[in-house]
Amino acid sequence: MVETFEYFTKEITSIYRSIQRIKEFEMGKFGLKGIHVTCLYFLYRYPQGLTSAKLTQLTGEDKGAISRAISLLKDKNFVKQDIKQGKNYRANIILTESGIQIAKAQSEKIDSAVLAVTDGLSCQDRQVFKSVLSQLQDNLKAYEKNLIE
Fold first, then answer.
1. Does the structure show a pLDDT above 80 at 93?
2. 45 with 95: CB under 8 angstroms?
3. Do 35 and 52 contact (CB within 8 A), yes or no?
4. Alpha-carbon distance 75 to 68, whole Å?
5. Which residue in 89, 87, 75 sits closest to 36, CA to CA?
6. Nearest to 42 by CA among 73, 88, 75, 17
7. What is the average pLDDT across 115-125?
8. Cα–Cα distance between 76 and 32 in angstroms, integer?
9. Secondary structure of the chain as H, E, C letters
């Protein structure tokens, strides 16, 4: 079991760090950080826009981190709020034209990266990986919940 723990934590940490370095490299060109890749990606996938709450849910990021990310994206004119829907905090966040250009380019790079890192894996391998990863996440959340209660 110790060997499994060591392998699991080392590999997950290594994968996470690689993803973060790639995100930071790509977003550094625009004066942005890694979290902005994820925000732009989901906003590009949902052209009608997303509320901050929905963006938080989709990204799995902290509510405060999303709020700060959106604030900087607004400052750089990559996103705006569609306030015609009512309250500011419930308004959808949508990409501006410059935001769409960056998000489109990043989305294409993401597609290319996914193809590169899954090279050599069959469709079945990918499905098994996703299933196992999902099960591990569910188990970890349940374990964490039991610790807290």
1. yes
2. no
3. no
4. 11
5. 75
6. 73
7. 94
8. 9
9. CHHHHHHHHHHHHHHHHHHHHHHHHHHHCCCCCHHHHHHHHHHHHCCCCECHHHHHHHHCCCHHHHHHHHHHHHHCCCEEEEHHHCCHHHCEEEECHHHHHHHHHHHHHHHHHHHHHCCCCCHHHHHHHHHHHHHHHHHHHHHHHHHHC
- Could you tell me the pLDDT band of residue 149, with boundaries at 50, 70 and 90? confident
Supply 130's token pair: 């996703």
Residue 85, pLDDT score? 56
- Tell me the percentage of the chain whose pLDDT exceeds 70: 95
pLDDT for the residue 56:
95
How buried is residue 106: exposed, middle or buried, by Cβ count under 10 Å (0-12/13-18/19+)?
buried
Within 10 angstroms of residue 30's Cβ, the number of other Cβ atoms is 15
What's residue 68's pLDDT? 95
Tell me how long the chain is.
Answer: 149
